Amino acid sequence: MNNHPLISVIILCYNAERTLERCLASIVHQSYDNLEIILVDDGSTDNSSVIYEGFRDKDSRIKIFKQDNSGVSKARNIGVKASAGDYVCFVDSDDWVEPDYCSELYQLLTEEKADIAIIEASYEDENGNVVFYKPISQETVMDGQRALSLLLEDEVIQSHPWGKLYKTLFFKNVNFPENLKCFEDYSTLFKIFDQATKVVRSNKKLYHYIQHADSLSHNLSPTTAYYFYLAIMDVTRFLQNSSAADHKAAITKNIIRKLLMVLKRILRQTTEKEMKTEKENMRKSFKSFLKYSIKEIGLEYFFYVRLYYYYPNIYTRLISK
């Protein structure tokens, strides 16, 4: 496949000595071999370097970049900036991919003359047991607007960077937000999809996403929850100022659902005096949702948005029971 375009595979690494060998082995043995493999070490303090340097010594396609621990966004930006490929894809160091991961993505993209290609994942625990079955969708080829709507609805297409192949030029004026220590993908992927004219996806499960008991999604602290809020509001501002996405009512309902989930996490895990500024910021941001009718967002969300905006103390007591 040496005549095919170069694909840059970007791997972020932070204290991944338990999983990194399997991850790297799955990438260096891809059937699509015209790859550059960019690993960005975000200040690991374990033996990760021993593993990736060993792989680099045997495979000249591997490039290593190191930074002091600065977060996933800066690491992703370094990886994208360093990439020389026509296309870019991501693999997390906790995960691993099937041998045809890159070739399937590339074939999908080129056969349909698309801008972004997507494959599905197997959601597994650390022992390889499937822990989540995502509903299968029959939508495989779609225009950019439809794909953007599905991304914002967050069911058929999710906002994680992995499992996708992108034209590298889409990242030219888009950076992952370095003020967010997590949920940077949720705040970024819609900007990438907004540039696409055509998107193609497959239900083939070629990516193995490993869910850990101590992951952010299982242990959302008030601080990380607020990062999620900031990312959600990035999406909200985009949606309210854009005519690109259809199905705005469904997307708005999904946004409100996430905001209320984040709000509950923060209110239930903090005292009245903790995170007062953050809570007030959240309350004020609810104003932008007051314009939606019961028909558009449903009675439950219509009620709770108003309750927290006008009577935050009552809402706090209600959800704290």
In short:
By secondary structure, the protein is an alpha/beta fold. The chain has helices at residues 20-28, 48-58, 72-82, 101-111, 144-153, 189-193, 222-240, 248-269, 276-285, 294-297, 299-310, 312-319, and strands at 7-13, 35-42, 62-67, 87-92, 96-97, 116-124, 130-132, 141-143, 164-167, 198-210.
Q: Can you tell me the overall shape?
A: globular
CATH superfamily of the largest domain: Spore Coat Polysaccharide Biosynthesis Protein SpsA, Chain A
The number of helical runs is 12
Low-pLDDT ranges: none
Briefly note the structural class of the backbone. alpha/beta
Description:
By secondary structure, the chain is an alpha/beta fold. It has two domains: 7-210, Spore Coat Polysaccharide Biosynthesis Protein SpsA, Chain A, CATH 3.90.550; 222-319, no CATH class. The chain contains twelve helices and ten strands. The protein has helices spanning 20-28, 48-58, 72-82, 101-111, 144-153, 189-193, 222-240, 248-269, 276-285, 294-297, 299-310, 312-319, and strands at 7-13, 35-42, 62-67, 87-92, 96-97, 116-124, 130-132, 141-143, 164-167, 198-210. Strands 1, 2, 3, 4, 5, 6, 7, 8, 9 and 10 form a ten-stranded mixed beta sheet that branches. The termini are far apart. The mean pLDDT is 93.
How is the secondary structure organized here?
Layout lengths: L6 E7 L6 H9 L6 E8 L5 H11 L3 E6 L4 H11 L4 E6 L3 E2 L3 H11 L4 E9 L5 E3 L8 E3 H10 L10 E4 L21 H5 L4 E13 L11 H19 L7 H22 L6 H10 L8 H4 L1 H12 L1 H8 L2
Parallel strand pairs: 1-2, 1-4, 2-3, 6-10
Antiparallel strand pairs: 4-9, 5-10, 6-7, 6-9, 8-10
Helix pairs in contact: 1-2, 7-8, 11-12
